[in-house]
User: Fold Sugar O-methyltransferase from Nocardioides cavernaquae.
Amino acid sequence: MTNVAGSIRSRLKRADVTPMRAWVKQRVQLRLARAGYLVTKIDDDGLRYFEVSHDSDVPLPPGAEETLRQDNPRLTELREAYNALEYPSAVPTQWNDTFLSKNLSLAWFRGDNAYVWQLRLFTSSARTRNYLAMLDVASRDKLGLMGKLKEDGLFGAFTFLFGDREPVSRDLLDSVNEINYLNELTGLADLEAPTVLDIGAGYGRLAHRMSEALPNLAAYDCTDGVAVSTFLCEYYTGFRELPDTVRVVPLSEIEKLRDSYTVAVNVHSFSEQSHASIRWWLDRISERDIEWLLIVPNTEGELLSTEVGGEREDFLPDVLAAGYVLEDNRPVYQSDELREMIGVGDEYFLFHKTAKA
Assistant:
């Protein structure tokens, strides 16, 4: 009996169970499909649509990896200065240490991360959707910035090539779109010595692009309530060798801001702050002479904050109370047909100052 059992076990060990596994897998997938579910294995490229990632095809420039470190003395200094502040704007509700540890790689700060969603923005078919976004943006590029501003893919940015066109990225497309929009509504490119305040400037994306796009720009001040953003902005604006007209003003030195600006911009920043923080920033805006205020929220059709518990509060009344009226509200991608295929419903909210608050 023992020999028989041993023989059976031996045969089972030698048996090829692959057909059985395949049959079971097929049956399970069939039942799930009938229930309305499709289960497939995601490869490494597919995973990029669901997690923080970067494109390392373009290597980091010399010294970047050594400088862009969590233990950099300048970053430590900024963190200590920000932590000592009692401003509501210095208390993050979304951009806390836990969020940053999961959503940001310092050396690859232009990858798909907390600052600019790239592959994750589109969830699939990023190449096709970036092509459609490029067509939409290029159709309104009256300043010719698609041919003037370049994308080199540094610091992890995902780039896309289409025919004989120059490489594009979301950094580039968003910037070209925003600059053309502001120019259409405010005449920014034709003004004599316009000035810009960028609240929630991140790593300095728009500062880099606008300073190259508008030679008439007299001043561009970047500020942010997150220490690591100020650190990266200082590094990036220096790396790009931007002119002296571009400044990075730490939150701890907010008194160094100018008394007046042509326009203040806030792109995907207020939506990630508390209501108290937004009100604090609006106080800083209203006490200055700032004619235009551009807000690009994360939520379609609404201006909503992010509170500690995840609640959202409407801050449109606070903008109006600061002495502004809504001048224009339109989708970021303006072709109805393309916008549906791109799958992004972001909107511009442009306010004009009418009176002192």
Notes: The chain has two domains: 2-34, 64-353.
